[in-house]
């Protein structure tokens, strides 16, 4: 799958950025180092000034790519969910058994992420840590309604709806497919967060994974 992914260009809504960072060496460096810096100090402490110092570039050059750090985080989130969508498609294509297809889909969106070597400037394992810790900050803003209308979260919603369609294949009479899948996708991020920081309020750990929990959940719900 890595070979296939290396030949695909991750698509991100062009309204999110000023200049596509994938079109230049500096742009790719901004993405690469912003992921590392956000992971190191957290999004709240992250600034373009700090990123500029880290990559040896003027702060003003970063604004040629992104209007503000919120748009950068939305970009990183969109890139992540687009990458997830590719993985989801490859894991479910040509599978005729809906239950097997659903198990594969749930595994993709809930499992621990490892770095994909085909994307040299993006460490998906670290980006996943950012999504776990910071993704809700892209949604819980006053501007989310307008940003949603402009398609900022289209890829995220598409990932959810792809899995919704599979749930409907498994059980056409189940009337809460969208609520179930959106709960699993976002809930898995929360469970990973709890496993890392609040182990006494989750059953997920090194021996009982988040994926195992959600596979168990969906099997019982759709029984």
TrEMBL record:
Residues 24-84 form the HTH tetR-type domain. SUPFAM superfamilies: Homeodomain-like (SSF46689). The lineage of its organism: Bacteria, Pseudomonadati, Bacteroidota, Flavobacteriia, Flavobacteriales. InterPro entries: Homeodomain-like_sf, HTH_TetR. Keywords: DNA-binding. The keyword DNA-binding applies. Gene3D superfamilies: Tetracycline Repressor, domain 2. PROSITE patterns: HTH_TETR_2. Residues 47-66 bind DNA. It comes from the Bacteria. The keyword ATP-binding does not apply. This is TetR/AcrR family transcriptional regulator. Pfam families: TetR_N.
